[in-house]
Specification:
Order of helices and strands: HEHEEEEEEHEH
Radius of gyration: 16 Å
CATH class: Alpha Beta
Number of helices: 4
Shape: globular
CATH topology: Trna Endonuclease, Chain: A, domain 1
Strand order of the largest sheet: 2-5-6-8
Number of domains: 1
Largest sheet: 4 strands, mixed
Number of strands: 8
Helix content: 25-40%
């Protein structure tokens, strides 16, 4: 199944996050989280499986990404690792910086801190996308891929 998002749909997805963060409007969730929904119909698959599928897709498209794990460990005191509030996958598409946040198939919640981080990434010229399936990821990053064209 090959779905293409039109410019209007993409713009709506990106503008929804920016508008709420920039204007500080009330959101439906008390904690400031933004509910996400897939832009392409997909099955309700756990986030862990979507993460594996997206990593495989990125590898096949030569989009270089690494898993961003965040946590704490104890070694002579508590230490933290990973980039807080960053997306699940961090990497690059050619010369462009990209972060891919995976949510489970039927939708999830983008926390207030994740929304702020997404705005910072985009403001500095990077790509921040939220995906609910590998297919949705493929459609969203397709426009950033370098395509070999013959004259």
């Amino acid at each position: 199944m090959n779905h293409k998002l039109n410019k209007h749909t993409k713009a709506q997805q990106f503008d929804a996050i920016f508008h709420i963060v920039k204007h500080g409007e009330k959101q439906k969730r008390k904690d400031g989280g933004l509910r996400t929904k897939p832009t392409i119909p997909c099955d309700d698959v756990p986030e862990s499986q979507i993460l594996k599928d997206v990593m495989s897709l990125c590898n096949s498209l030569q989009v270089r990404v690494r898993r961003n794990n965040v946590g704490k460990f104890y070694l002579n005191g508590w230490r933290e690792f990973g980039i807080k509030h960053a997306a699940d996958l961090i990497g690059n598409v050619g010369p462009l910086y990209i972060e891919i946040e995976c949510k489970h198939g039927k939708g999830g919640v983008l926390s207030r801190d994740q929304q702020i981080h997404a705005e910072k990434v985009r403001a500095s010229g990077g790509i921040y996308i939220i995906v609910h399936s590998a297919e949705e990821c493929g459609v969203l990053i397709d426009e950033y891929l370098v395509k070999d064209e013959l004259f």
